[in-house]
C-alpha cells in the first residue's frame, strides 16, 4: 500500500498532543491522508498552542468523547498514562477504528492493549517511531520528524493483515521506513541503544551537579559534553515511565555497564597504558564505523 492508494482517514484522534502525536498528525495532513485531527490532552494551554500551530483542528479534554467517530486513535502520551486512556476509550471506540501508539516500550503497552482493549485487538497495532528529540509538547511537533527514520511495529498475532498494512502505510506516508519485530526483542534492543544511554546521561549530569565547583565546570564544558549530555535534557515523566516499564532489560544493561566502568576504573588505577589503549580503541573504531552507516 502506498500513500496514493490509502483512503484518507475521516478522523484522527491524538491521545496526547505532543512531539510524537503532533508530528504524526502534521505529516498525515501534509500527505492529505486525514480530514480532521482531534487532540486530547490534560493541559489546555498545550492544546490551544496545538490549534494555533494547526497541529490539530479540534481540542478535547475528554478521551471518551473524542474517539467517537474516529478512524484512527494514536496514543502519544508517556507510557504510564496509556492504560487509563485505553480504559476510558474502550466502551466508546467505533467498531472499525484502528488503534496504534508511539510508546518507547512495547511489552508493557502490548499487555495494556490485552487488558483494556481485548475486544479491539485485531485493530490494535503497537508501534514505536525511532525519531524524536529532547523537546516535548505540541510546539515541538514538526512535519519532517519521521522523514527517512525507522518505525518499529510489534504486531499482535490477533492483528488483521489489513490493520498492520494500514498502519504501515500511514507511517510510510510520513516518510518512515517500517520494520517489524517482537515486543520482547524490541525492549531488549532499545534498552541498549536508547533507554540506558539516556539514564547514563541523567546520571552523569547529576554527578556533575554533586561537585562543589559544578557551575565552574559547566562554564567550561565544550561540545563533547554537549553531545554526551544533550539527552539529559529530556522529559522526566516520559523517562521515568520508560524506565519503570522496561525495568528488567534496563537493569541487565545497567549492571553490564557498571562492570565496564569498574574495569575502566581498574585500568586507570593501574595506569595500564596498553590496556587503556585497547579499551578506547575498540570503542572508537566501533563508533566511527557506526557513524558512517
Ligand atoms: N520524545 C521522543 O523523542 C520520543 C518519544 N516516544 C514516546 O512517545 C510518547 C509521547 O512522547 P512525546 O510526544 O515526546 O511527549 P510530549 O510530552 O511531547 O507529549 C505527550 C503529551 O501527552 C499529554 N498527556 C500526558 N498524559 C495525558 C493524559 N492522561 N491524557 C491526555 N494527554 C496526556 C501531555 O500533556 C503531552 O502534551 C511517549 O510514550 C514516548 O515514550 C517515542 C519516540 C521518541
Ligand atoms: O533525543 C534523541 O536523540 C532520542 O534518542 C529521541 C528518542 C527518544 C525516545 C525514543 O523512544 C526514541 C527516540
From TrEMBL:
Q: SUPFAM superfamilies attached here? A: 6-phosphogluconate dehydrogenase C-terminal domain-like, NAD(P)-binding Rossmann-fold domains
Q: Which domain of life is it from?
A: Bacteria
User: In the Enzyme Commission scheme, what number(s) does this protein have?
Assistant: 1.3.1.12
EC supergroup of this enzyme:
oxidoreductase
Entry keyword set: Amino-acid biosynthesis, Aromatic amino acid biosynthesis, Coiled coil, NAD, Oxidoreductase, Tyrosine biosynthesis
Q: From the record, what ranges are coiled-coil?
A: 244-271
Name under which the protein is recorded: prephenate dehydrogenase
